[in-house]
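Two proteins, back to back. First:
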Amino acid sequence: MQIGFIGLGIMGKPMVRNLLKAGHELHVYDIEQKYVSEMEAAGAVPEISSAAIAAKCRLIITMLPNSEHVKAAVMGKDGILEQAQPGTILVDMSSIAPLASKEICEACEKKEVRMIDAPVSGGEPKAVDGTLSIMAGGDEAVFEEVYDILSVLGSSAVHCGAIGAGNTTKLANQIIVALNIAAVSEAFMLSTKAGVEPEKVFDAIKGGLAGSTVMNAKIPMILDGNFEPGFKIDLHIKDLRNAINTGNAQGAFLPLTTQVMEILQTLHADGLGDSDHSAIVRFYEKVTGTEIRK
């Protein structure tokens, strides 16, 4: 199948590779030409703009940093809607504000372009493995039409409701992940300060009720002092900002999210915005003067 893919960052590149491996023809675009060239070397067809992709592809996937980037790629100059044919499907897999998804969908509908929002969870490792968790919003018939493509990229793809429901679900996911990393950091700082080896604490509790996918993924990184990004602090700030703004609009009370946001903003100010979000532990290490390491 001929698929357009816009956004070739940490997540986009492995997703393109998996679609290529599955036998699809990929037409790709990114504002960074070096990423386009990298994907061309992997077998994708380079394009000069989002509009150029829309002129050739009836299924287009976007994987971009935030709402304004998706709006520009879809609705802006040389954007998808300049060349998209009626019946084209847009699958926006970016993590953006739910209200932005609705706005973009309304613009698509005027051009008879069908859209679902389908953000993902799992970070770079699961993007590489093709085992992302995909949460989708939009017309269920459109979701079913692209389900086989989503299954190449993820181990699960769940239709969550109308347009914007995918991104609302993703915001809930990001709240849980951020709070989980903070809780793990706090707990392991307690045990370390009390003189208990963090590796033994991990071995003792990972199989119990406190165990989680987040702890299993992040504690080994923390113990190794490895904060190379699978998912950057700055991207988690973006997600929590969208969560807080959405919460304010809906009248939801998010005190813990707001507190973790302050930790992330402090880390950004300390120059750690490009570090993996497991670097939340660095906040606790800075305050206590103690590192959690092997």
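And the second protein:
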Amino acid sequence: MKLRIATRKSALALAQTTMAADEIVAANRGCKNVANENAAEEKIAEDNVAGENCADLSYELVSMTTEGDRRLDKSLASFGGKGVFIKELEVALLEGRADIAIHSLKDMPAEVLPEFKLAAVLKREDPRDAFLARGGKDGSRFMDLPAGAKVGTGSIRRVVQLKALRPDLEYVPIRGNIQTRISKLSELDGVVLAAAGLKRMGLADQVTEYFDTDKMLPASGQGILAIETLKDGCAPEVTAALNRVNHLETYCIAVAEMAFLKALDAGCQFPVASFAEIADAGVDAADVPTSECAGNRVLKIRGIYWDEATKRLLRAEDSAAFDVAAVESVQKAKQLGVSLAELIKKQLNP
């Protein structure tokens, strides 16, 4: 079986898509596709096993340029928000030119259109934001920059949080690929980028420092690669192949973070973010490595929202006992994201 994978043409998108495709192939090596997975749980009969062995799984990339890639002269909020990075890829799915599409989850809207579904996610990469100063590792750390220094970022979520830390700096809007943004250091004192993209591109050695999530909450979905398919019409063998690569813990985290955005009806034009972590009960989530299927754990989620009317950066957090292996884990994660949004709404309308 050959998977046709829709992806953006940028260097980062191609690198991430290739990485994800290789993981799908590796996860399916030596497996056999089961045409009816529910029946397979009860009885695996020869007539239920597809003849194609997953050891033969391969892929080809269907690359394209999206509206978000073409219109670099304007902010995303000014011409459609997050969907501008995925629309062309979804059209490829609808027209049968691709079997799956791979996105950075933070580029996706809070809820996919009814024709599609979030079929799987890969294990989350470093979710933090990174600061790159002129001079690289030897450059000034963010809090050591002189007053009036210029820092580049294309994210209003980052700007409102950076201003809370350093209101005396100038924040300059920048867009473009990673290399383009890094090149802006010739005229700026620093830029802020997602750590995940830098690490996937082998550019971590250019990071001056990483922002702790307590100081800079990442974008919802940051560091997560999402695999999208048609809701109906996706071939059973494709669904089975994606189930084998899906990282359930990250999937639950993704559901919680995106549910928060949906409940607030917020997109990239809003300074809003959420960040979820799963940890052993009584232990800080940031100090615990991820592991699947562990009981007695806690799902913790934090969120921010900039209230333009009062010029306040609102913060809230919520948590719940959580077993990622439980049947209801995805629904429980969704409910927690909605609950966090309600805490923010209460601050908006006291």
